[in-house]
Write a structure and sequence with these properties.
This protein is about 55% helix and about 15% strand. The protein is of the alpha+beta class and about 525 residues long.
């Protein structure tokens, strides 16, 4: 009677464990509309309890082998199964290993193979009659919970994704925008919005067909995603309109990212009939707007300005507002738009050089502590530094310096002054001075005015160094490019005479740091 009572108590304890595990798994299954990881963790805990196991593991098949999805308990759950075993049609087995009993249970739901659960319990506690069947019931409950979670997450993901491009859709983007603007208001962190539009997209659809248009949108998406951070949100918010949300990014940072996206598309998204280009408008919270609606309105305003003034441009909301408040109006092209339309009729090299000089000058200026407003103006001046070359015949610009006649040399030397006049007439007084001085030398041997030392604005000295570095490292019609190391040697040799020594030191440190990072990335890939 005593032995029978002991057996009944033990059986009651096992059944209570089974019931608790089944109840826990049923609860997990009913709460399965969440991420998979906590479901796996709770499910393995319940299986460990129901099996009186010391350890449990859930294995799934990966591309190269098996992947551990979850673990419970302190003890080992047997050796890792092979990928083939995990994928096999049936995998319920019990085996003795040392002083442990290893129980393996296959997980399947709705015809999909999910993986294998391995349980380990002391060999001194053998499986009772019908216990393996009860464990299979528990495993089935866990399978259903995991599959429900995956199905829900898949549907949720589909609901927030654009079916054509795979990026986020309009609804998800505006929810993210509202969250980020709220967070910016609470913590004082900036957030920037960029709105992109594919230039002349209707012509692509009308002339090449909607299938080519869809391919273009997918290619634009692919190129854009390669230029942004993981924390940024990129979405398709209209037919050919995209938006980019950049948390904790100031106007200049957002502008540089937008320009990287625009450049990537202009260089790598080609059709047989020509290049695909983007226009973009940039707005930053709280400077340009403190609410999502106001921020979007300002970004759209900048985008429309860019579309009206030449396309393939990134415009900042504050610049557009300032221009319109000064009475320029939207019908008068700004100098940037004038330059873009002019350079588009010439070689892509000329525009690419201008973009690189602008980015290089900004990078140096950031190291030297220039303000955000100063950096924005420096970027504009760097991009426009060669605008005066519209007064120089293209055949003259294509010649090596050694082949120029004296008259041609004098013609080339007029371009800083021409650029100064154009920008001054457009109301860009400071930028005009920097462009007019970017060929001056610190030893007084430059042109057009022979300024020396600190008579030359710091911004002009920055542009001069950036211009020389980018010119030396670019292919020219009359000479091959110099290696980066050789260009740095040339800059150092001319420091204190042609170039500002401090600026040369900064660009050397920046380039060497980037070269080290590049070598490190190559080594990691190798």
């Amino acid at each position: 009677a005593i032995a029978r009572e002991r057996r009944m108590v033990e059986e009651m304890g096992r059944r209570n464990s089974d019931l608790e595990a089944l109840t826990g798994l049923a609860t997990t299954m009913n709460q399965s509309l969440e991420e998979e990881e906590p479901i796996v963790a709770r499910g393995l805990d319940m299986l460990t309890l129901g099996a009186r196991a010391t350890g449990a593991c859930l294995w799934a098949a990966g591309e190269q082998g098996t992947v551990l999805l979850g673990r419970s308990g302190d003890g080992p759950a047997g050796p890792e199964p092979t990928r083939g075993a995990v994928l096999s049609a049936e995998y319920t087995a019990v085996e003795q290993r040392d002083e442990q009993t290893i129980i393996r249970l296959a997980l399947s739901a709705h015809g999909s193979r999910l993986g294998v659960v391995s349980l380990s319990r002391p060999a001194s506690d053998p499986l009772g009659e019908g216990e393996l069947g009860r464990l299979e019931v528990l495993a089935n409950q866990l399978s259903i919970a995991i599959q429900n979670s995956r199905d829900y997450c898949d549907k949720l993901e589909q609901a927030m994704r654009d079916p054509l491009t795979g990026v986020y859709n309009r609804r998800f983007f505006y929810e993210a925008l509202e969250r980020e603007v709220g967070r910016a208001e609470r913590y004082g962190a900036p957030v920037s919005l960029v709105v992109f539009d594919v230039d002349d997209f209707k012509e692509i659809n009308d002339t090449l067909g909607h299938a080519r248009g869809d391919d273009t949108l997918r290619r634009v998406t692919e190129l854009a995603l390669g230029q942004i951070r993981d924390v940024d949100t990129f979405a398709r918010i209209g037919g050919e309109e995209f938006a980019l949300l950049l948390p904790e990014a100031h106007r200049l940072d957002a502008l540089l990212v937008a320009d990287r996206v625009r450049l990537a598309v202009a260089r790598h998204c080609d059709l047989a009939e020509g290049r695909v280009t983007l226009s973009a408008g940039v707005a930053c919270c709280p400077q340009d707007g403190a609410t999502p609606d106001e921020l979007e309105r300002q970004a759209d305003s900048a985008l429309y300005w860019a579309k009206r003034n030449g396309k393939n441009i990134c415009a900042i909301a504050s610049d557009v507002t300032d221009a319109e408040s000064e009475g320029e109006g939207s019908d008068v092209p700004a100098p940037l738009a004038a330059l873009v339309s002019t350079l588009d009729s010439q070689s892509l090299y000329t525009r690419e050089h201008a973009e690189k000089v602008a980015a290089c000058a900004v990078a140096i200026g950031q190291q030297l502590g220039l303000s955000e407003v100063g950096l924005l103006r420096l970027r504009r001046a760097g991009f426009l530094h060669d605008i005066g070359k519209i007064a120089v015949p293209p055949e003259t610009l294509a010649k090596p310096r050694s082949d120029l006649s004296e008259a041609e040399r004098e013609r080339v030397r007029t371009h800083p002054g021409v650029g100064l006049s154009i920008l001054a007439y457009a109301g860009l007084g400071e930028e005009a001075e920097w462009v007019g001085q970017h060929h001056e030398r610190v030893d007084g041997g430059g042109y057009p005015r022979g300024l020396r030392g600190h008579q030359i604005a710091l911004e002009a000295r920055l542009i001069g160094v950036a211009d020389a570095f980018e010119a030396m490292t670019a292919e020219r019609p009359y000479r091959p490019r110099l290696a980066v190391s050789a260009a740095l040697v040339e800059l150092r040799n001319c420091a204190g005479t042609q170039f500002d020594s401090e600026v040369v030191t900064v660009i050397t440190e920046l380039v060497e740091r980037d070269e080290l990072a590049l070598r490190a990335r190559r080594a990691l890939r190798a």
